[in-house]
Amino acid sequence: MDVMLLTFTFFLFWIILVIVVVHYGTLLLFLRRLKQTEWQKPDVDYTPKTMVLFPIRGEDPSLLNSLEKVLTQDYPNYHVRCILDSPDGASLIPPTTRHCPL
């Protein structure tokens, strides 16, 4: 009985040792390759193109304020689109917003 337990323990020890060595070996190879890789620095001047959508349905008291905030931002690469739910909805938009140069 003691021989079986000793054999099992010896076998289990070697299995765990192999798993640990393989695990840390893989980790070391990954870290070495990560260190050798040259990473490109991001372009500081890059700004992705962005679209701002305004869904409009009926009268919205904060629409003019929201449009002014978007149009006065300093982000250079964007487009603004106002989407009307129905043709009747345009009459409910404040007149100063209807002719906003977008």
Key descriptive features of the protein:
single chain, 102 residues, alpha+beta, 2 domains, two-stranded parallel ribbon, 3 helices, 47% helix, elongated, disordered C terminus
Write the layout of secondary structure elements.
Elements: H1 2-36, E1 50-56, H2 63-71, E2 78-84, H3 95-98
Parallel strand pairs: 1-2
Identify the overall geometry: elongated
The helix fraction, in percent, is 40-55%
The end-to-end span amounts to 87 Å
Q: Please tell me the overall pLDDT.
A: 79
The tally of beta strands, per DSSP, is 2
| Helix segment tally | 3
Helix and strand content put the structural class at alpha+beta
Rounded radius of gyration (Å)? 32 Å
Query: Proportion of β residues?
Result: 5-15%
Q: Major β-sheet, in short? A: 2 strands, parallel
Q: In what order do the strands lie side by side in the largest sheet? A: 1-2
Which consecutive residue ranges, at least 5 long each, have pLDDT under 50? 97-102
Number of domains: 2
Secondary-structure element series: HEHEH
Question: How would you characterize this protein structure?
Answer:
There is one protein chain. By secondary structure, the protein is an alpha+beta fold. The protein has 2 domains: 39 residues; 49 residues, no CATH class. Helices cover 47% and strands 14% of the residues. The protein has 3 helices and 2 strands. Helix 2 links the parallel strand 1 and strand 2.
